[in-house]
Each structure stands twice: as C-alpha cells, then as structure tokens.
C-alpha cells in the first residue's frame, strides 16, 4: 500500500474516532440529565479509577502504552465532567439562558483572554458576541452598565503571579464572580514569515508576557522590547506592519488568526505556565450542590495584633480549604489591607455558610464576591502497579 493510500485510511479512521467521541458526548449529556433528576454528584472518582484501570488493561491487549491511554482518557473524562457541570448549572439557572452571550474581555481576537473566552463559552448555549476592550476598567464598565452580560478576566498566572489591577477593580465594583477556568499559556515568537530569529530586531508584547519570558529574552542580546496594551495589539501591529524585522510574543493559536508563524515555541520561564481567569456578571448564580464549587470573599480585619490569624483559624475550625489569599491596600486608608480569599465549598453548604457568618462577626466588613463552579479538574490517579499487572 502506497503512502497516499495509508494517509487516506488514517483520515477515515480519524473521522470514525470523531464520530465516536461525539456519540460519547451525547451519552455524557444523558448521564448528566439522570444526575439532575436523582441529585447525584457530577464526579464519582471510584468509578473513574475503575474505568481507567479497565481501559489501561484493555489498551495493553491492543498494544497501546498505559501512559498513552491514561493521557487520552484524562482529557476525555475532563471534558465529560465540565460538560456535565455546565448542563447542571444551566438547569439551576434557567433565567440566565439567552440566545446571545455578550462577553467583554481584554484585547481582541488572538489575545489570551480571547482564547479563554472561546474555551469557556463553547460549553454554554447561545451565540457568543465578543466585546474586545482596551482596559480592565472598560471591561468592568461594560458589565456594570449592562452592555455586556459577562466578562472574562485574568486574575493570576503561575509564572508572574497575581494581576493586581483586577483585584483593585473588584474592590470598587458591584459585580459577582460566576465562573472560572484555567488556560495553558504557551508563549511563542511570531513573525510574518518563517524567518530566523536572528533577523528579529524588535519584539512587541504585553508587559506581563515579557515578565513571564524574561529568561529566554535575556539571551536575545540587543533586541528591543516594545510594550503593548494586550497580546492582540502586538499580533495586529506585526501583522499590519511593512517591516519584516519585527515579531510579537503570543500563542501560536492567536498568531494563526493573523497569518503569523511561530519561529520559536515554549519560551516561558516555566514550561507549566497557566493563567487563571474569572468570569463576572452583574448577578450571582446558583451552584448545584452536586458540583464542586469555590467561594470568593473579600474582608478587612480589625486593627489589632493577630486579627488575620484569628480569621484564618475560623477556616481551620470549620475544615475549609483556602486556595488563595491576596492582600491589597484599601484606597484612602494608608497601611490598611483588604484580603481576598478563595475557599473550596458552596455558599449554600453548611460549613461555608457557617464560616462566613463567624468571619462577619469578627471582621470590620466582609463581602462575598461570588460562589461558582470550580473548573480545576484533578485527574484521577491510577496505581501504576495495577495498571501494569497484566504485562
């Protein structure tokens, strides 16, 4: 069989795989509807572990490596969990279902916020109407004025840390956090043609991106760095320029929207580079108890020694896991701090509700910013000794 015939068979096999994956998604939807009726939790880790072990064993019979099978089905199970969570959320919030979702985000097509927006709303019904913005302040204004139903905002990055401007906007805005997602960030150097990196004299990018790629950029010698308001602006500038000695830093996916080529991939300081985004809206949402949830609140403590420790002890005593603690100055009150806290748990559940009540009684003020589905999907572990037992 010649190469072309082999490629044709591969393409036919790929199409069959896509049909089977679509069929699996339909079955997943039916499972979610059953869980809605019977009030069952979305995740059953015991079932997931048994399924993975069975699949690894069956894969070995077909000559497939255990790691390959696990990696593939981790993605499939994650997709199943997120689709089920989205369906349960829709069922719990019927008044939020609209034919159009107007969503504000930083930059425009190609920015990391754009990619995160596309990822999050792919699982939600309704047509996505994109509203690209030039600043975080503009994004908040769209939601507050009702010209956007939602906004997607970067809140922290595993390499460069928290995005303080977003926290400061949250402090002064009357909005609710209704969702979150984590997006892999894979920085690349993008040009109009597939030139060599030595031909690049000027690099365009967002300041946060330069910070996240500082180690690689330090090896480029005299290449100039030009700051842009967003990754979108960097991509657009290089795409529309007549110069061929300039490049932008962004994702390969974003660059493809502007016919830019990645000439150097994976340039971030950390190979596991991820950004966490929050989704905000004017009104809060109801999170079904079957879905893993997070609650975010902001508080200021009384001015006395040990006040923050006293507040954190409340979390410990109620067995509440804190996933984020961020402090920001209180505008107009020198040397006083506002604390942003993320915890695992649903505001409707007893332990979180009790924690909020106790904290309210010992702090100067406390405001819940939102309770929302958690999209941090921990992959089910399969004991390697069991996975390999049939070798």
Write the layout of secondary structure elements.
Blueprint: H1 3-38, H2 45-61, H3 66-92, E1 100-106, H4 112-121, E2 127-133, H5 136-145, E3 150-157, E4 161-162, H6 164-171, E5 176-184, E6 188-191, E7 202-205, H7 207-212, H8 214-217, E8 224-227, H9 231-240, E9 246-250, H10 252-256, E10 261-264, E11 274-281, E12 293-301, H11 307-317, E13 322-330, E14 333-344, H12 350-362, E15 363-373, H13 384-387
Parallel strand pairs: 1-2, 1-3, 7-8, 7-9
Antiparallel strand pairs: 3-4, 3-11, 5-11, 6-9, 6-10, 12-14, 12-15, 13-14
Helix pairs in contact: 1-3, 2-3, 11-12
Instruction: For the record, give the distance between the C-alpha atoms at the N and C termini, rounded to a whole number.
Output: 32 Å
Oligomer: single chain
The CATH architecture name of the largest domain reads 3-Layer(aba) Sandwich
Number of helices: 13
Largest sheet: 6 strands, mixed
The backbone outline, from C-alpha atoms, is globular
Percent in strands: 25-35%
* CATH third-level topology of the largest domain: D-Maltodextrin-Binding Protein, domain 2
Question: From the helix content, strand content and strand pairing, which structural class follows?
Answer: alpha/beta
Number of domains: 4
The level of helicity is: 40-55%
Question: Care to count the β-strands?
Answer: 15
């Amino acid at each position: 069989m010649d190469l072309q015939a082999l490629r044709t068979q591969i393409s036919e096999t790929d199409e069959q795989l896509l049909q089977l994956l679509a069929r699996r998604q339909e079955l997943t939807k039916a499972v979610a509807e059953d869980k809605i009726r019977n009030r069952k939790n979305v995740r059953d880790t015991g079932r997931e572990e048994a399924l993975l072990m069975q699949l690894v064993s069956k894969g070995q019979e077909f000559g497939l490596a255990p790691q390959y099978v696990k990696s593939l089905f981790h993605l499939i199970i994650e997709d199943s969990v997120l689709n089920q969570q989205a369906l349960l959320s829709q069922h719990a919030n019927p008044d939020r279902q609209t034919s159009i979702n107007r969503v504000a985000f930083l930059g425009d097509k190609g920015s990391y916020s754009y990619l995160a927006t596309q990822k999050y709303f792919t699982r939600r019904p309704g047509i996505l109407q994109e509203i690209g913005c030039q600043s975080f302040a503009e994004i908040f204004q769209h939601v507050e004025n009702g010209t956007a139903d939602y906004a997607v905002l970067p809140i922290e990055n595993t390499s460069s840390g928290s995005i303080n401007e977003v926290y400061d906007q949250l402090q002064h805005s009357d909005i609710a956090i209704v969702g979150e997602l984590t997006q892999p960030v894979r920085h690349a150097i993008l040009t109009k043609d597939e030139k060599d990196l030595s031909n690049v004299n000027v690099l365009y990018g967002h300041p946060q991106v330069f910070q996240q790629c500082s180690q690689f950029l330090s090896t480029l010698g005299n290449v100039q760095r030009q700051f842009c308001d967003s990754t979108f602006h960097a991509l657009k500038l290089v795409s529309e320029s007549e110069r061929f000695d300039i490049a932008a830093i962004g994702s390969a996916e974003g660059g493809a929207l502007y016919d830019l080529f990645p000439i150097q991939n994976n340039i971030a300081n950390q190979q596991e580079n991820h950004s966490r985004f929050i989704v905000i809206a004017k009104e809060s949402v109801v999170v079904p108890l079957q879905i893993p949830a997070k609650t975010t609140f902001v508080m200021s403590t009384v001015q006395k020694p040990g006040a923050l420790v006293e507040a954190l002890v409340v979390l410990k005593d109620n067995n509440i896991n804190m996933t984020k603690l961020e402090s920001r100055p209180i505008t107009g009150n020198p040397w006083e701090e506002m604390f942003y806290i993320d915890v695992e748990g649903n505001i409707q559940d007893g332990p979180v509700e009790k924690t909020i009540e106790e904290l309210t009684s010992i702090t100067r003020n406390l405001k819940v910013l939102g309770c929302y589905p958690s999209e941090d999907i921990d992959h089910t572990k399969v004991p390697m000794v069991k996975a390999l037992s049939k070798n």
